[in-house]
Every structure is written in C-alpha cells, then in structure tokens.
From TrEMBL:
This is Multifunctional fusion protein. 2-[(2R,5Z)-2-carboxy-4-methylthiazol-5(2H)-ylidene]ethyl phosphate binds at T135, K136, S137, G168, I188, S189. Coiled coil: none annotated. It catalyses: 2-[(2R,5Z)-2-carboxy-4-methylthiazol-5(2H)-ylidene]ethyl phosphate + 4-amino-2-methyl-5-(diphosphooxymethyl)pyrimidine + 2 H(+) = thiamine phosphate + CO2 + diphosphate; 2-(2-carboxy-4-methylthiazol-5-yl)ethyl phosphate + 4-amino-2-methyl-5-(diphosphooxymethyl)pyrimidine + 2 H(+) = thiamine phosphate + CO2 + diphosphate; 5-(2-hydroxyethyl)-4-methylthiazole + ATP = 4-methyl-5-(2-phosphooxyethyl)-thiazole + ADP + H(+); 4-methyl-5-(2-phosphooxyethyl)-thiazole + 4-amino-2-methyl-5-(diphosphooxymethyl)pyrimidine + H(+) = thiamine phosphate + diphosphate. The gene is thiM. It comes from Halanaerobium salsuginis.
Length: 506
C-alpha cells in the first residue's frame, strides 16, 4: 500500500458522529475518497481505542488509505499503524521518531516557528496547524477562535514540510484554507456529522482538488512511504515541480539555480569512458538536461572540447590508446578551463590501472574525483579490497581518507556507497539516502560521475563545486528512492530512475 499525496484526512471522534460508530463513518468516508484516517477518540479508554484501531487498520489497509494514530505512540506501534500524530504535550517528536523508525509517518502539531523547527529537525513528515477557524466543539481544540488564514499562511512559509490544516474546516471555507497554503485538509465534524458521509467526502475532496489546481500555492506531496517493504527509504516530492522536499534548504536553492540554467542552455559533456556503461551515461546526461557526447578519437576529442562544458574521464576499460586520449584531452580541458570529473574505476585492481590513474592525477587539475570506497581508499594510500571494479570490505576511515585526498589534490572527492561522502578537504557532507537497488545495476557509479560532470558544466555564481556536488549526490539518491518506491527489480528500476531524473529536470 502506498499513497503519495493526501488531500483529505478524516479524524475520527465517535462522540461527534451523530450516533454512528467510527467504523461506519470511516467506511463511508473511504467510499467518498478520503486519503487518510486518524484514530483520535479522546474519550475512549486505551483498550477501547486499541480494539477500534485493529478494525480501522484493516479497513484502511484494504482500501489503500493511510492509518494514523493520534497522541499515543505505544498504540501506533501496537497497531502497526502507518504513523502517529503528536501534539506539543505528547512525547517529544525526536523520541517518537526513534521509537517509530524512519519508515513510519510522524505528524506534529506546531504553532510557532520554534515548534516547527523542532519538529523538522526531529524528522517529522508533516506539520499539523490549527485550529484554523472556530470549531463547533470545545473538545476539538483549546483555541476556540481559531488562528485564522493569515497565521496559517505565515506558518506555512516557515516550513518545507507539508502542512495539514485542521479546525472548523468545511465545504464553504476549504477553498480559502487551500489558498492560504494548506497542503492537506483534516476534518472531523465536516464528515462525521454529515447526513451523507460518502457524498460529503466526495464533495469536499472535489473542492480541494479543484482549488489546489487553480491555486498558485505549491501543493506538496506527503512523504511517500513504502509499506510493502519496510526497508525502503522515505522520500518526499513537490507535486507541481517534482522538486524534492527533503533536499536540505541550501541544496534545494542550489538545485533551482542549476535546473534553471540547464533548461536555458544545455551544456555539452564530453566523455572518455568505458564501453560497458557508455550508453547509460549518455542517457543520464541527457535526462538531466545536458547534451552527451562520447567521442573517443584523440583528434576528435580534443577538438570537441572547444564546445564542451565538462569532461568525464572514466577509466573503466582503459587501454594504452584510450589513456593517451584521456591525458591529451585532460590537458586541453585544463587549458580551456573546462572542469574534469574523474572516475578511477577499479584503481588498485591492476597495476596498469593504478599507474594510469597516478599519471592522470599528477598531470591534470581535476574538479571532482568520484570513486567507490575501495577506489578512494587506494588513492589515499590506504589498504582496500577490490574484486574487478567492485568495492568490497569495510571502510571505517573512509571520511578521513577522502578529506585528506581532497586537501592534497585540491579537488572535491565524492565517495559512493550506501552512505555517500562529499568533501572538499574541509567541509564534509554525508548522504545516507538512496536505495540498495542502485547497487544492483551496473554503472550507477559511472552514471553518478556523468551526473556530477553535468553539474560542473553549469556555471553558477555563488555556489561552490562542493555545494554543487553535494546537491547532485543528494538529489541522485532521492530520485533513486523515488524510483524504488515504484519498482523493486533492477532492470525496471533503472528505467524508472532515468525517468525520475528526466521528470525532476523539467
Ligand atoms: N546499499 C546501498 N544503498 C543505497 N545506495 C547505494 C547502495 N550501494 C550503492 N549505492 C549508490 O549507488 C551508486 C553507485 O555507488 P557504487 O559505490 O556502487 O559505485 P561504483 O562501484 O563506482 O558503481 P559502478 O562501478 O557500478 O558504476 C551511488 O549513488 C551510491 O550511493
Ligand atoms: C563492469 C565494468 N567493467 C569495467 S567498467 C565497468 C562498469 C562499472 O564500473
Ligand atoms: Mg558498484
């Protein structure tokens, strides 16, 4: 079961359901198209809520509707709910996140900048804001006047997380709430007290959808969670522009600049690369919005650089002739001020590779070296285990090795692994995102190198190569997660991953 975008979120309260029980209410609301249910029931005992929750969970699961538990993390865990919604007087968000793990949804009610920041840093998936309007029942909220639309709009600007608005929202005012910036609408009475719950749900959802598509405010998707496979990583996207919400703010800003520039003028990326993954590298380059060229003759490569914006040197299938072309082209790129991204594929596996790389590193100025853990360890003069071009073994000191190498060569080092590292010798960014399927497809490292070259080929002011590299690696990983939510076998995953890169660059 997976659901990426919530429009309408029903919060249950049997006492406000005009004699109907919450099972009946939830079933009718699901028939009307709600996206998520929250088990609230403030007046029931924990045992009663548990029993009701068991039934509601089954109903939701069958319908593909998200099931969230209010207030009690113990209950959420006991019911194996999709997530929990906590207020400021419940257990702290950080504790909740630790107990929940990363795959479950954590919603936090927040009313101030500080509360929003704390929720974000604890790893919340959405921020609940309310009560927006006066509510019919005091039980719904302590704030009987409601915070109003202006305050909602102000709070919305303080977070990149999706905002769920609650409190006194109904058919007549929901449009204004969406326009003020709410991404998702949570209601109790508007549905629980309706004469015809199914019809009321349909109507409310339609109004939300039609207002959202008219509204200029960005409508964000909630984190997509894969409930089929709990090991799958989490992600979030912006529905309109496909921009990833979870990109840290500075990287998100950098991506906007890179993306704008890519859409205006596609940089040409010349590749001298291996004959295993060459086609994938060409396609990934194209999907980011750049133009690939993979010309391997000495004269042609050198001449091609006149119109290129970056050069990839990938030694995956190096031989005497290709090495010579790399050296010559590298020198030409340096003369022209074109950034070079080097992938020392399999360095250390053979003496030939190691000598070739030593020569390239000594003679050329490199913008980035991207290698797997073994390759970077070898370059840093440490022990490493390689089998062919694959990194095997444990690398506890990889960060120090990468930093040292970056400082020594005055370049950016990118280490790819389940947790990637980007460093310029001083700053370090770790990216523990992505999906293990990346390791099941030959060439995702080479494609990462080509992707880095695309970003190096974009000239942007105010963003260092370090930030550009970190942005790319982060984005690459998040897009892989997004692909992996949809697909769980390698070949189709590769296709989906390409498409995600394409969509994100539009
Ligand atoms: N277990 C994993 N979980 C998440 N991401 C992973 C995992 N293993 C590898 N990756 C990602 O896969 C990509 C390739 O990394 P890897 O270290 O396998 O490179 P490589 O060995 O140079 O690849 P190749 O030689 O196949 O081109 C990187 O984006 C990395 O983050
Ligand atoms: C498998 C393989 N062999 C040489 S290059 C390459 C692609 C991954 O680096
Ligand atoms: Mg690999």
């Amino acid at each position: 079961m997976k659901k990426s975008n919530w429009d309408l979120y029903l919060v249950t309260e049997a006492e406000l359901s005009r004699g109907r029980d919450s099972i009946e209410v939830v079933k009718a609301a699901i028939a009307g198209g709600i996206d998520a249910v929250q088990l609230r029931e403030k007046n029931m005992s924990l045992r009663e809520r548990f029993k009701l929750g068991q039934q509601l969970k089954k109903i939701c699961q069958k319908a593909g509707v998200i099931f969230i538990v209010n207030d009690r993390i113990d209950l959420a865990l006991a019911l194996e709910a999709d997530g929990v919604h906590l207020g400021q007087s419940d257990l702290p968000a950080l504790t909740a996140r630790q107990l929940l793990g990363s795959d479950q949804i954590l919603g936090i009610s927040a009313h101030t900048r500080e509360e929003i920041a704390a929720a974000e840093s604890a790893g919340a998936d959405y921020i609940g804001i309310g009560a927006i309007f006066p509510t019919k029942s005091k039980k719904l909220t302590e704030n009987n006047n409601g915070i109003g639309l202006k305050k909602l709009a102000e709070l919305k600007k303080m977070t990149q997380l999706p905002v769920v608005a609650i409190g006194g929202i109904n058919e007549s005012n929901v449009g204004s709430v969406i326009k003020a910036g709410a991404d998702t609408i949570a209601v109790i009475s508007a549905l629980t007290r309706a004469d015809d719950i199914k019809q009321a749900s349909q109507k409310l959802k339609n109004t939300i959808l039609s207002t959202s598509s008219d509204s200029s405010s960005a409508k964000f998707n909630l984190k997509e969670k894969n409930f089929k496979n709990e090991t799958k990583a989490e992600l979030a996207i912006n529905m309109q522009h496909n921009t990833l919400l979870e990109l840290p703010t500075n990287l998100a800003d950098c991506w906007q600049i890179l993306k704008n520039s890519l859409s205006k003028n596609s940089p040409l990326i010349q590749h001298l690369t291996n004959n295993v993954t060459i086609n994938d590298c060409a396609n990934v380059t194209l999907n980011w919005g750049a133009l690939p060229v993979m010309t391997s003759g000495e004269r042609d490569s050198v001449e091609m650089l006149e119109s290129a914006s970056a050069l990839v040197l990938n030694i995956g299938s190096i031989d005497k002739r290709s090495f010579k072309v790399m050296l010559k082209s590298g020198k030409k790129a340096n003369q022209l001020g074109i950034p070079i991204v080097l992938d020392p594929v399999g360095v250390g596996a053979t003496e030939y590779r190691t000598c070739a790389i030593q020569k390239l590193i000594t003679e050329l100025d490199l913008a980035i070296i991207k290698g797997n853990q073994a390759e970077i360890s070898i370059l840093a003069g440490q022990q490493a285990e390689l089998k062919g071009v694959e990194s095997i073994g444990e690398y506890q000191h990889i960060e120090e090795a990468a930093k040292k190498l970056a400082a020594q060569l005055r370049t950016i080092i990118v280490v790819s692994a389940a947790e990637d590292i980007i460093t310029d010798g001083i700053q370090v960014q770790r990216v523990k995102r992505g999906d293990q399927l990346l390791g099941q497809v030959v060439g995702t490292g080479c494609m990462l190198t080509s992707s880095l070259a695309v970003m190096m080929g974009v000239k942007v002011k105010n963003n260092s190569n370090f930030i550009k590299a970190a942005t790319l690696v982060y984005l690459y990983s998040l897009l892989a997660e997004k692909a992996a939510v949809k697909i769980d076998t390698p070949a189709k995953f590769k296709q989906e991953f390409f498409d995600q890169i394409f969509l994100c660059s539009q």
